[in-house]
Structures are given as C-alpha cells and as structure tokens.
Amino acid sequence: MSRYQPSLPVLAAGRSTVGDMFRRRVPAHPSRPAIVDGARVVTYAELESRSNRVAQVLAARGLGRGDRVALLARNCSEYLEIELAAAKLGVIVACLNWRLADRELTHSVTLVGPALLLVQAELLPNVERLDLPPLPRLVIGEDYERALAAAPDVCPHVPLDPEDGLVVLYTSGTTGLPKGAMISHRAMLARAMCFASELGVPVGDHFVAWAPMYHMASTDQSLATLMRGGTVHVVDGYQPDRLIEIIARETMQFFILMPGMVGEFARAVEASGIRVKGIGICGAMADLVPREDIALATRVLNAPYNNTFGATETGLPPATGGVLPIGVVPGSLAKRQSAFCELRLVDPDDNDVPVGTPGEAAVRGPTVFSGYWNADATNAHDFRHGWFHMGDVLRRNEDGSLDYVDRVKYMIKSGGENIYPAEIELVLAAEPGVKEAVVVRRADAKWGEVPVAFVTRLDPAVTAEVLLERCRRDLSSYKRPKAIIFVDDAELPRSTTGKIQRHELEARLK
Fold first, then answer.
1. 317 partner at 20 to 30 Å CA-CA among 80, 125, 434, 495?
2. Which residue ranges does the chain devote to CATH 3.40.50.12780?
C-alpha cells in the first residue's frame, strides 16, 4: 500500500502567516481599538488600512519578499503597523536597539544589508553619527504620513511561506557585537499560541507594551494580541504614572514587570492609592528580582508572579508558565516546563544528563527562531543535531520542575538585558595603556546583576575615569562597568591552561 502524499493545495491550507491572521481578524470587529498610544486610538479597520498603505509604500520602493528594512524607533503605534505591513509583503524588519552605542548600531544595520532605513524623527541624530554607506531612508513623522496618504489602501497579495522571516531581533554576541536572531512567521504564530495557552490569555485581552519594541517582550506579545482581537497599549518605556493609569482602567491577563523596576513600581502603585482593575499574572525573570520585591508586587497588584525562563531565540518556552503565589516571599524558583516545546538537558558531548544533574538546555519546537543572520559557524554549533542549544544550564528535579543553575557561556543579565563580558573587555582593551581587562558579574539589589571590570595596565596614567569615559563613548549605558578595579597580573586567577577563572574574581566582590 502506497504512503499518502498530500498535494500542494492540501499543504498550502496549513501555511498561514502573521499578515494573513491579522487581516482575517479585522472584519470581526473593525471598530474595536487595536492600538492605544497616548491620546491616539487606532481601530482594527484603521490599522488594516495603514498597514496596507505602508506595504504599498515599501513595494513602490522596490522592496519585496526577503528584503530587509531597518527600523530605528522608540515605542510608537507606527512600529506595529510597519511590522504588519512587512508581514503582508514578505519583508523582514530588523528591529534596531536605539540604546546602542554608535559602533554597535552601525554593525546592527550593516549586518542585515537593509534596502531602506525607517527612522523616527527624534532619532535622526543617532543615524547621522553612524559610519554607513548611503542608505535610502523614510522618516517617521511628516514624511511618513505624506507617503501613506499618497499610497493605495490595497493589501498586497504576495505568496509567502510560514518559514519566511518576519523580524530580526538582536541579542548580545559573545565576540562583542550584536547577533541578529531571525524570527519566522511560523515561530511568531506559535509564540502567539503559547502566549494564549500557557498564560491563559483570553481573546480580546489588553496588553501593555512598555518594554522596548526591539525586544521580544513587546514585539512577540503585541503581535499575539493583535492576531487575537485584543488591544495593545503602547507606552514609550517605563513611565510609572502612565502604567498606573492603564492598570487602574483596564483588565489584562498578563502585565509584564522587568528586573530593576519591580519593587519600585509596586511601591509607586501602593502610594498612588489606585485600585487595580484586574491583572491575571504579573512579572518576568524571577531569578533576577529580589524575592521580597516579588512578594510586594504580587500583593499590591493582587496577581501571582510569572516565573519565566525563555529567550529571544525561543520565545516564552522552554520554562514559562509557572507562577509564584501572591504575597509570599518564594522559597524556591523552580520552573514548569512549557508546553509546545521539547527540552533536553545535555552534557558537553550532547548526552542527556540524569535527573538532578545540571545540563545545558537544548530546545526543539515551533517557537524556535530560524538562526542568527549571516552567522553560519555559530548556527552550526548552536543547532547541532537539530536542537537549539541555549547556553544556559538547568537541572530537572524529581517532580519534573526545573531549576536555573548557570550559563555555559558566561553572561551577565542586568535588568533583563543580556551582556557578554567580551563586549566590554574589547572596549577596555582598546585603551592605550591597558594590558588586560576581565569583566565579571556582581549581584545587585535593583538590576539583578551588573558588570564589574578587573584591569591590568601598562601605564599608571590610565585611570578609572579614562576607562569609564571610553565606555560612555562606545557602550550602551547598561553595559558600562559599575566599577573598575586595577590589579596586578599575578592577581588574575588562571587555570592550568591560562584561562581566567571568573568565578574566583566574583568571589572577591562579595
């Protein structure tokens, strides 16, 4: 008996994309608010029209399936309509981190080879400083609105595949420059399903996108909300008064809190005297938050804390969904494995480790990204044997829960941002008179962890202020060392092979 082979039309019926899912949602509730951005309210019908027009503007400039646009903007409603336009046209949006230093931002743009730069008017000075070849640009503001007004309101019908790229989100690179993680339509659709099922998010819910849109925290969940008929409240960064006003007015299943602001925000809400309308789950990254702040935030917001472990590369999986109870200082931060993903914990030879033994997290599933842009060697290593190796070490307990242990690749997590020491060490070592620089993490009550640098020098004229000034010039603010400690060569602990023992340096900071 021959094996059944589905025909191409049969296969095509399963190939939905993000643009399709949003477009088909609009007729059900055209007048419902899709985006609230301050006083500006954009309905589903208006967002459909504007994203169609943006797609036509891009198409008129010759952009099509697989081409890249670089987007440099703070949180705004235009960010989402550009992503939806790209989703309809098959264009990939490289979401640039406007906080990066010039060197890092130049690399992020040139890495993806964009055909167009979309830039917010207030961020034009950032672009003018970059060492870039001539690149067509469209300024988000009057120029952008004029272009949309002249474009037809017609959805482009471009045949796309779910494996086509949708966005590039940047992560810290081990060699000191950002890596571009490409997220496909398939992965974004799967992430939306995980968001709904793992966190119990109802259709038509509200989501507050205050975290940067160039992060998965806002892009993933905003697109998920729009594909399910909800309303995205766009806030340009951490603005306590705005956030308090929203949670007093709207109910929502998930309200994200990030390390560095959990206790501060909880105290602000408490001081305001407002009554929270209704939050189902709050928080993220419990491992990096003081446990007393978790207890306070859950009590004030009357919502359990989301005990997450995910990544730009994997979305909410592999271990997001478990919660910490209201008003309790947690004794354990053990996590629950997410559905819709496979998780192995492996040793350096990729053998599964026994229960109770730490191992590197290797993940497989529909939410996983499509590799780092233009990084074949890294992809070959990180995707070996068909599993994405996260570089994080977990331990599975007898009850199936998961404890976070450490990182295979030494990394600093500061306020939700990933920092690799090499990023800082390269900048410090570039200063004449510096012999060697070693960066380690130090526990911090507010940010979870912060970088500290140990430096050996050839020239005593090299001072901490000289090095910090270089860091201010070449590094994002969150990557700058919180302290410079000068040491002699003999004070740097090394293994028998000469490798720096970072953990021994960490111990000196306690």
1. 80
2. 14-237
